[in-house]
Amino acid sequence: MMNIRRAQEKDIPVLLGLLNQVLEIHAGIRPDIFIPGTTKYTENELSEMLKDDSKPVYVAADEDDRCVGYAFCQKREQPFSNNMVPFTSLFIDDLCVDQRARGRHVGEALFEHVKQEAKQMGCYEVTLNVWAGNTSAEKFYEKMGMKTKERQMEYILR
Question: Is the pTM of the predicted complex or chain greater than 0.70?
Answer without folding.
Answer: yes
